[in-house]
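To the team - arginine complex, inputs and output below.
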Amino acid sequence: MLRGDLERELGRRVASAVGSAFGVAISPEEAVIRPAAPGHQADYQSNAAMPLARRLEVPSPEVAARIVEQLEMGDMLEPPRVEGPGFVNLVLRPDWLERHTTELASDDRLGVPLAAPPRRAVIDYSSPNVVKEMHAGHLRSTVIGDSISRLLRFRGHQVIPQNHLGDWGTPFGMLLEHMLDEGWDRAGQHAIADLNRFYQEARIKFDSDPAFAERARRRVAALQSGEPETVTLWRELVAESIRHFERVYELMGVPLTPADNRGESFYNPMLADVADELVARGLAVPSQGALCVFPPGFTGRGGEPLPLIVRYSSGGYGYAMTDLAAIRYRARDLRADDLLYVVGADQRLHLQMIFAVARIAGWLTTRAEHVSFGLILGADHKRIRSRSGDSIKLLELLEEAVDRAAAVVAERSELTEVERGRVARAVGIGAVKYADLSGDRDKDYVFDWDRMLAMDGNTAVYLQYANARVQSVIRKAGGPPAPGTAVMLPEPAERALSLKLAQFPTAIEATIEHLQPHRLCTYLYETAVAFSTFYERCPILAADTDALRASRLVLCELTSRVMVRGLDLLGIEAPERL
Ligand code: ARG
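Output:
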């Protein structure tokens, strides 16, 4: 059976035909294979001829004709044809697609090969700040990071999540001081629900009471130098917050655990050493009392070189320095092949500078990528806020999602009470995640309950419902078809569905290559649509022959497996009944 990306295989064949016909080497990507748009008599088209025509100074229809002559068809392809100015139309042979689908149905990886060799990816995601509650930006980082982790793991790569908690730095001076003023007991009772308010109270006191501000500053120093009472108190504060985060992850079904926590504080003992190394390499230089690196190519509006602050004039270290220590640790100690940072677009410059410095310092020799994302907007198209104007609280938002989904699910009476609770959670959380994942992550999107919970359109519940419908057909048939049942594809609608199912590995490849989960969403949506056309046009249980009935059940079963796996790779559950 052909494993992996069908488009790449076709690209390989076209590239090798180009090699034989013209003696020029092109890559499978340069063969420009695309699924043919409806209306063309083809499954795929190669668009290689036009650019080659320019390069070889041969008219493009002739280039295409010579590709067609040389193309290896094997048992996979019908004789190819040239269309228009030089498109090469490619059609899969029906018997090949039937065999391929039959084999796919008994392949537990659904045609997706394991990466050889696997890479080790260190992926920084979620990364909320202690004491402040998680907000919409952390939702995006958590959802996108979780999906990318799942995709990489499924592909056979090793994934090391790093939850870069904001658990260190100057805000802790005022927080700890405020805790002591109020008594930790009082804070303890309030901490989980009101961490945010606690933070705000401390902030107000810090801004309005100079004596408090001074105490807060001394408290930072005490924390950084490891003064025991301060450290104990800080630990409690952090632990309280981590319990809050765990509740959020649990509700979201995100398998981040305390073992994945590597907060900013983890790097504190390394900072002096990293600073020394930067000085020794001549990279860090004194600037206005502080210690800075000026990576080449980064300038401000007036063309002045931009600094990355290694050490403030006060002697303290900040966010940037912690990230330098973190990148050295991830590259050198964790031996990452790929360093991924799932962080909002507003930190682009910061991360680009970190990457640049880490490269000059020689720590970073492999891939580092900012997996950036845009904002979640409210109905007013501004950054989403709660009714009181604060930043939105993630836990409340998720609870509301489950409540709203429960109302949708309540209309369906065949479910038991227990099932309904589970389904409401799957639908509610799924809706929020899918709304986040289904658009290009770099873009902002508007948070809209009605749209994300709509039963039709490109939503999680549409996909969940499609899968439940497939499952119900299989139940009515008395269970899945016998293993090895042969697939036949007499009707165009079942052929189209089969082709979609054969494209699962292509969708996974593209999603991983660009780290863009929306590509997988689009694929799953198209698959659900292809299923629904198949379902309308091709009788399953009442098929003309037993063999056809069994074949159609194989398509049902395979569709469901693709949907369930695909949704799982997005971190979304697919209940059997809805
Ligand atoms: N805690 C940061 C924030 O909430 C995100 C950290 C991202 N990761 C990093 N290595 N800087 O904005």
